[in-house]
Amino acid sequence: MGDFQVDIKPTTQFELFAGLESTDHEQIVFCQDNATGLKAIIAIHNTVLGPGLGGTRMWMYNHEKDAIKDAMRLSRGMTYKAAVAGLNLGGAKAVIIGDPKTQKSEALMRKFGRFVENLNGKYITAEDVGTTTRDMEYVAMETKNVVGLPEIMGGGGDPSPVTAYGTYMGIKASAKKTYGSDSLSGKSVAVMGIGKVGWHLLEYLNKEGVKLNIADINSGILEKAANEFGAIPVSSDDIVGLDVDIFAPCALGGILNDQTIPQLKCQIVAGAANNQLEDETLHGNMLKNMGIVYAPDFVINSGGLINVYSEHTGYVREIAMNQTENIYHTILDINKMADELGVNNQIAAIKHAEKRINDMMHVHSTY
Ligand code: NAD
Fold first, then answer.
1. Superfamily assignment of 160-302+329-351 in CATH?
2. Distance separating alpha carbons of residues 53 and 247, to the nearest angstrom
3. Fewer Cβ atoms within 10 Å of its own Cβ: the N or the C terminal residue of the chain?
């Protein structure tokens, strides 16, 4: 989450614990293996609700402290995402320091899998930026605590259709809050980013008779989607300021910032992209003050996490879709909480997650 700061200075003096005092992480595991060149950090933020689940990112970090910060920041985000999705999961994340193009090998991924196994189920891994389903197959040779596997291995396959369904549910709930009805028929929606999620979202919206405007930097996919859904293609620069009812960002993070928010003419912002608000408090408040109903990103796009969680408990797509449908009610609850507390929707979503963790901590206080 954007407000999270951790100050780690392990260079001249070893002050790692001093940095950790400013956070509430449960455990940070350093994994080192000279033979394979593995240097990984597993950050377990919170396991009150269940084992910490979060993907493994492989990245060329400039400094080791950047890798630690990234693992800590991302693991904290996973705690909130799982909590608000109503899952019995905590938050964790792993990073492997290195170039995924040149430094990855079967041995490195399997060695990493051994470290995951040694955590005895407290951490469940999955693919992320710089790692692939194939890498997770190697990890799965050493531990059962891995999700995001191909369907032939009992996995849930591509989570994007489930993420898109959750996003659609979040858009409908936001419409209910704004217009008093969740029907999207005749409404105009601007979808930015026609990737794996954006495409499936267009299918749902098109079926409900939505007037579609679309943008993507990939002109091929833009033309294909325009033909398939009768959507109006616009440039990526113009899509934000279109005079539409709903803006659905499904491409990049940080799309809601000082420059873009004043351009918005919509009543609702609800899309799948991660980390949409450049600054959660500042930009969340700007949207609120403009009377725009914002669907918090980590709530509306939690279908992907729900999908992999369902894999851990024995994958059935119908169950994953059913649970994803709850995003509709969660978005309505968050809007209500935001009104009651007088805070923006992103802050209300964080409070909603914290409340569930605190409530369950109490439930777990007796055997
Ligand atoms: P994707 O890479 O398949 O699609 C992203 C699309 O955005 C691409 O078509 C790309 O060309 C386009 N794009 C990039 N920059 C753009 C710009 N400036 N203007 C317009 N289009 C641009 O990714 P995806 O899997 O569809 O995910 C979309 C977003 O949703 C990402 O932010 C991702 O982190 C988030 N998300 C995805 C899932 C999932 O299940 N795939 C789950 C949770 C969150």
1. NAD(P)-binding Rossmann-like Domain (3.40.50.720)
2. 30
3. C
